Amino acid sequence: MSVLNAPAHVNFASTETVVEHFKAFTNYLNQQTKLHADKVYIRYSSDGTFKTLTYADVDRIAVNLACKLAKHVQNIEVVSFISDHSVSYLMVMLAILKLRTTLLAISPRNSEAAAVHLLEKTGSKLLIADAKYEAVAKGAVSKVPGAEILTLSPFDIEALAKEPLDPFHSQVLDLDFSDEDILKTALIIHSSGTTAFPKPVRYTNRYLFYAITIFEILINNNSKLESLTEADVLLPIAPLFHILGVSLIFAVIAFGGNCVFLEKLPPSQAEISNAIAVNKVTVFGAPPLVYEQMVAYLKKTKELALVQRLKYALTGGAPLKDSLLEWFYRNNINVRVLYGSTETGTIMSSDFDRTSKNYSSLRLYQMDTQGVSYGVFETNDSKEPHIKHLYIRAGSPILGAHVANRADGGYNTQDLFIEDPRYPGCYNYVGRRDDTLIMKNGEKTNPVPMETTIRQSPMVQQAAIIGHGRECTAALIQLNKAVAQQCSQEDIHAAINAIIKETNRECPNHSKIFPEMVKILPVDQVLPSTDKGTVMRRKAESLYQEEVDMLYKNFLEASPHANSPNADTSAWTAEQIEDFLIDCASKVLDIPRTMIEDRPQSLFDYGLNSVNAIQLRHLIAQHFEDVAPNFLFQHYSIKSMRKALMSRKSECSSEQMERRYQETQRLTEHYIKRAKVDFPRASNRYVRKKSKVILLTGVTGSLGSFILRELLRDSTVEKIYCCVRGDDHQLKDRLVEAITSRSLDASLLDTERVEVLPMRFNEPLLGFSFERYNQLKNEVTIVQHCAWLLNFNMPIDYFDRECIQPFYNLLKFAYKEVNPMHVHFISSISASAAAGNEVAEEPLPLDSHVAMPMGYAQSKFVVEILFNYLTVEKNFPCYIERLGQVCGDSINGVWNVSEQYPLMFIGGGSVMHKMPGLDTAIDWITVDYAAASIADIMLRTAYLPANTDQSVYHIVNPHLITWSDILLAMKKSGMKFEVVEPTKWVEYLAQDDTNPAFRLMPFYQDNFTKESFKMSVWRTEKTSAFTPIISKSPVLDADLFSKFLNHWKSVGFYKPPV
């Protein structure tokens, strides 16, 4: 640990001692300057050579400049400065700090409008500008009443270094410091403004002390690492108007190290190599983009020895691909990762030991006096419990002032991580909450690693992956001008195609970029990026909106007339059409032709999904007229497609819908035929003394978690087997995370009554050994099946393969000729939504038209009919719980923020201040009352024989209210909005793609701009009589809605009006 110009107990191992001793950051700089006065602090590039300034030189120049600026900043609370990063920038920053006036550091990449925004937000009345940016500064100041401009001519640093100390400096500078200085704002740095105007973040003196601890805590406090001393030289490729630049450049002052300033940022790789060689640099810091370019440079020049000598090469501000870090590691270049933000400074790092393979996984290192990290990881989404969101605790000294965005005063970083199983306690960055592209089919795409891969091509300067609210992803490519100008168009396209293929190999199937969805920009056009090299994705899409729209239009609406002429397919034979279709499917699915030839199966069995179906449809539409967007969901086998194309008849929507109903009808009858053979008629001789042992699925979902809690509360339940999807070693953790993420008591799981099992129902014996299968078959008495895929786009045969067939295997497990298990199924009101104005609590007729016209509802219908058959004909006690709309629980208000209605409430009521006026009855039930009712039904029927009169229950709120009642509850909870027509609401939403509700834009367009589907009323008399607890379900009033808002506020989803 470095020795400071302070008593021995003051050091950065306990940063608070440094804060309490020095009080103000400028005082710390003053004292350290005295300690290191004659040592070199700055090495700056000038006229092709590097010149040096000692700590004393830098201090004297800054003091003299402060004396000159004093009259200009008098009585001004915030002084702004706009200039390029340079040694002159450092002098101005130090001078303002010495005057103890708050400095707003404005990036010169800001537009005039952004500069105006920053001046207004900070109340700055003086803008100091380098002569280069005088025009922007004058324009900004003219729009801020009372603001003035001070233009600085270029500094002659050599001349300034020779000037004597201003004799009146002691009269100008206040060198008396007290505890009041600790929490005073010393510096304001703004965010990059990736999605909107940049946000100013205020740094107190305390914050700045914590910001510069990087080298002291991570290196000099670690006896296993090579310490940094006055002999070490830092080369930072990070400007002083970014927190990384501030943290690195001022961090070396602790040990008297020196720092290199280049003439411009960003530099070329040749300039970096020269600076490292000439200045004998030992520590390097740069954003990932510089390292991406460095790999290509080093591979070309073979000049590895220069960077291998670096003790530490640090990167942060954006992700650096693991494969590149691995390359550096293999070549003995010690590149290590930092994580932080404008609001928090640097708070995580990988292992700095060059022998460690942990070069990328991050560990929190900023701790309080009790050794507890200021950062906390929490489950981001209960559906993906392994993905963690990082937030910073309230009161943390590493937080900028007034950045709190949680109800408890903490700060949501919006950054997502996954724990690295190789290094417990270390996390890998996976992206931002707002990075995630929610595509039209509901799939999620993380564009960051895809963009990182694409940028590895020497042909590419920058890339943006888009697709939010769209059918598939697309890529905007900015070419590397220097490389592209030396290549032909064929070479450029070949290089881009190659890197897109590599990207597709690494990303999920639903995120793959089709060749037709790549837009290569002209060589003189650029994508907007931050100073750190991060692409401004939304700005890029907005800037090239016309090109993007045309890209999607040409792809999704392809026809023979929109493309180059093709052969006349009207004369093709059945064999030619089938051969063509096999070729297309083989190409899209990336499988051999032989796998598809002479096979009647659905292409979905071979890996077709809602995304690559778009590409396959595109290829077909280039040769055939009138290929509907949903063609492959209507005709999903080669034979079916061939017949449809030969008929040249476009099926209308009503015909498509009827065909789906007929398929559902046939599938239902198919399962009844199977059940006739597979299940002999059982006998029921249930004994009440028999222990209740339950097998529960869907337990990591919201409803399943609450059902588990209710069952564990009942002492008559001896054991609960929880079937969970995932890797065996993660199953218990997933269950614990599911419980805790819903504010339930995880200690309930600390019992032998709960055992977690893998869920593999599509495998023989449900994936268990013969002995385990039979042990469970003899032990389990009740099965509750909550697990079911939620996808409103997929057809019935998809649900048959993914859900119904595995569930049928579970039914065979549950069946016994004597006393079969009592089996419960969470159905959906959508399975009976077309059964009439009122739906009785009784089995459905064998008519698939009673279900809503979508695969999800139809799959539930199939199971309901099968259950009724098994109950009546096979004496197999099967129970249906028809579930309606479920909302958050009545105690904590935990309601998943990714669902339709939370998105509407916040996007409409809080962001737009507009809500749609709907004509619908509301029978929503809170998840805890729904679970309690279902658990009660399970336990009350545990010993009953099969009986159709007691086999169907409606889990909806018996107390109906109206949509107007919902809107009133919102207003009573403090939300202010106007009510508009649903179509108008959709129009307003379409204008703001940053609105959280925008991700469900296709859903709202389908439901709010067309004639609405009239929902039935589900009767609850029998259910209420059987399980009285459902009658106590609270309606959604202001009290309940306030609980939802409080929860959403605690997770950063809702920001109440000030």
TrEMBL record:
Highest rank taxon of the organism: Eukaryota
Keyword tRNA-binding: no
One Pfam family cited in the UniProt record for this chain: AMP-binding
Stored InterPro entries: ACP-like_sf, AMP-dep_synth/lig_dom, ANL_N_sf, FAR_NAD-bd, NAD(P)-bd_dom_sf, PKS_PP-bd, PP-bd_ACP, Ppantetheine_attach_site
Keyword Transport: no
A GO MF label: phosphopantetheine binding
Domain Polyketide synthase-like phosphopantetheine-binding: 578-649
Protein keywords: Phosphopantetheine, Phosphoprotein
PROSITE patterns membership: PHOSPHOPANTETHEINE (PS00012)
SUPFAM superfamilies: Acetyl-CoA synthetase-like, ACP-like, NAD(P)-binding Rossmann-fold domains
SMART domains with a match to the protein in the record: PKS_PP (SM00823)
Protein name per the record: Polyketide synthase-like phosphopantetheine-binding domain-containing protein
The species this protein was found in: Parasitella parasitica
Gene encoding the protein: PARPA_12342.1 scaffold 44939
